[in-house]
Amino acid sequence: MRNINVFKKLLQRFSKAYTYVKLLNGSTPIFSNFGSDILASDVVMQCISCIASEVSKLRPQHTKYSGYDTIPISDDLQKLLENPNPRMTSADFLEKICFMLLSTDNCYVIPVFDEFTNAITGETRRVYKALYPINPRLVELIEDNAGTEFLRFSFANGEQIAMNYDDVIHIRMNFSANEFAGGDSAGRKNNTALLKILQVNETLVEGVANAVKANYGITGIVKTNTMLADDKRTKVADEFIDTIESNSRKIGVLDIQQEFQQLNTETKFVDKDTLEFIDKKICRSFKMCLPVLEANYTTSQYTAFYQTCIEPIVIRLSQAFTKALFNGNQRSRGNKIQFYPKDLVFLDMQQTIEVMRILGDAGSVFENEKRQAFGLPPLAELEGVRMQSLNYVNANDARQYQIGQTQTGGEDGAKTSQT
User: What is the spatial distance between Cα 364 and Cα 380, in angstroms, rounded to a whole number?
Assistant: First the structure.
């Protein structure tokens, strides 16, 4: 792993003695990604690739909540979310995270950062420099003498790194049987049921291939009514084939000593409904919608796919990144990492018009955003222009507008004027 140089500082920081964390179920917290390879199935790869492609469209944003309002923050952390490391774009980063999450039920992202301590207040500040999704062969949950939990990652090249668990962005799926990791009781993806379906699917595919081959097999024989030596039988067969191949009408000629017999080679193919049933069962394992996989979906089908498959991943990403990248004090002040879906991703044209009308009347979108929603390029003269309808009023001022009065006095509000 070439990225190991990036983590040398982490290796030095956590080079101390550890013991395994004691889990309530009495097991040793060692988790590996080994198991039967479901990625050998083309349907599984198509499902994961499709979901990961949709997740890669998300837009990460550092936000801060102020009351009921959400404020986007443009800082160094936001720049990092848009360019997580020198080797990956934001789309690459999210796609890789999703691929590993769906493949193993666990994904680990290592943040690289510098820490600075204020000599006067003692407050520690972090400056994040990079985010790396890693693919370890072995993960161990360990603790030091003070009870602080760490994760020790072992890689295929024999290298190891250990990092404070609170600093690691750990995203999990199917978090149930294990106290720490997603998946089964051993912290691995439980593929037992899926592998049975994949085996049936492989058998059906092989059956179709064999049926195709059978169609090109022997379909008839030439029967000789006399006893012939082996070489003469071969000569009779060759002569019969030659008469067919040399005849443009493909008609064979036999004398009274030979007889052609047609073989019954009716081939049974697997019916379409059976193959579609198996594909649907595989897709359901990933909450995948088959029409979405085939890129032949309706708006309602995509909306259902987004809500059942993509949205839970979006929530997990947001919570895991927020928990790891901000301390408790920062979270209490409203800092959060949000992942926003692609612009109006599951709206048809009519719905887009309605959404733009509602948001436009309220002055919630810029004019160029309206153009982009309909596939039109932004215009320089519309930069920063935001229009809104005058048919709306601030809720706090509604009563004054209703009775035809506006406040013109000072803080006591005693003086009013008719409008």
Answer: 19
- Residue 31: phi and psi, rounded to 5, are -130, 135
- Identify the sign of the CA torsion 133, 138, 144, 147: positive
User: Over 60: is that where the pLDDT of 237 sits?
Assistant: yes
Tokens 């509604």 locate to 398
User: Both tokens of residue 184?
Assistant: 């089964």
Give Cβ neighbours of residue 122 (< 8 Å, ≥ 6 apart): none
Which SS3 state, helix, strand or coil, does residue 95 take? Answer: helix
**Could you tell me which of 290, 280, 107 has the C-alpha nearest to residue 189?**
107
Span 301-348, pLDDT tens digits: 888 899 899 999 999 999 999 999 999 989 999 999 999 886 556 677
Which two tokens mark 248?
A: 């443009």
- Phi first, then psi: what are they for 368, rounded to 5°? -70, -30
Give the pLDDT confidence of 244-270 residue by residue, as tens digits. 666 655 555 556 666 666 656 666 666
Task: Please tell me the pTM assigned to this model.
Answer: 0.72
The beta-strand segments (E) located in 159-229 are: 160-164, 169-172, 220-224
CB atoms within 10 A of CB 178: 22
Confidence check: pLDDT of 50 > 90? yes
Q: Which two three-digit tokens encode residue 198?
A: 């994949």
What span, in angstroms and rounded, lies between the C-alpha atoms of 226 and 258? Answer: 8
Maximum separation of any 2 CA atoms in the chain, in Å: 127
**DSSP letter string over 380-404?**
GGGTT-----TT---GGGHHHHHHT
Which pLDDT value is given to residue 246? 67
> 């912290």: which residue's tokens?
187
pLDDT for 283 = 85
- Alpha carbon distances (Å) from 415 to 48, 239, 254, 372, 395: 66, 117, 119, 47, 21
Residue 401 near residue 382, CB atoms below 8 Å: no
pLDDT, averaged across the chain: 79
Predicted confidence at residue 55, as pLDDT, reads 94
CA 175/CA 159 separation, integer angstroms? 28
Contact at 8 Å (CB) between 335 and 351? no
Across the range 363-376, mean pLDDT stands at 83
Which region among 15-19, 78-82, 226-230, 256-260 has the lowest average model confidence (pLDDT)?
15-19
Partners of 127 in the β-ladder? 114
Residue 286: both structure tokens together = 């990933």
